[in-house]
Write a structure and sequence with these properties.
Elements (H helix, E strand, L loop, with lengths): L1 H15 L6 E2 L6 E4 L5 E6 L8 E8 L8 E6 L2 E8 L14 E7 L18 E2 L14 E2 L2 E3 L4 E8 L2 E9 L3 E2 L3 E6 L5 E7 L2 E3 L1
């Protein structure tokens, strides 16, 4: 039963850890309090913070699930992937796959907003200079600027399967995947849409 408990708990932990690519040492010990039922179900207690060295779980009797029959605690060491800049990046430089190296570090050693997955840095630029060897943090990144206030912008107006193309003047700076206002050249209407790589989608 001990091995089955640890196996089931491992599956729940791996599903619950909120860091893509995180890993941990195999669970091999536990502290048990209560009576182990013959037919049981284990339920991980979500920690208030994953910066922890111990996790807890409840064990329920399947035939009497009204309250936990027992509690258990397991020691754990969690490591998360971190991305280090392998060259100095200047402000507004786009992050490329070859400009960072990935390694693993204890969750205690990484900043709380460290970039831990490629998705978090996809299509991003650095806000200011980042020196070689620095661990990337989400606060260092920004969406790239596609157009500035006063620029002529392509407007794509989508209605179902129909797409109309217009031009307009940007009323504010437009950053990729963020909303921005433009004024249509043909109708003078002010439109607010989502900034894309070639203009704005309304």
């Amino acid at each position: 039963q001990r091995a089955e408990l640890l196996q089931e708990l491992t599956m729940q932990i791996e599903e619950a850890i909120p860091y893509q690519g995180a890993r941990h040492e195999p669970l091999d010990s536990l502290t048990f309090r209560g009576k182990m039922p013959q037919m049981w179900r284990v339920e991980l207690i979500a920690p208030s913070s994953w910066r922890t060295t111990r996790l807890q779980a409840k064990v329920y009797d399947v035939e009497h699930p009204e309250r936990p029959a027992a509690f258990l605690q397991v020691p754990i060491q969690i490591e998360v992937p971190v991305y280090k800049v392998n060259q100095t990046l200047t402000a507004s430089m786009k992050l490329e796959e070859g400009s960072v190296d990935v390694s693993y570090a204890s969750i205690y050693e990484v900043p709380h907003d460290a970039v831990t997955s490629p998705d978090q840095m996809a299509s991003k630029v650095v806000k200011r200079q980042v020196n070689q060897g620095t661990i990337l943090r989400q606060s260092m990144l920004d969406d790239p600027t596609i157009f500035e206030r006063g620029d002529v912008v392509k407007i794509r107006i989508r209605r179902g399967n129909v797409e109309l193309v217009d031009t307009g003047m940007a009323l504010e700076t437009g950053k990729l995947n963020q909303s921005a206002r433009v004024q249509s050249t043909s109708t003078e209407a002010v439109l607010k849409g989502l900034v894309s790589e070639d203009g704005i989608v309304y």
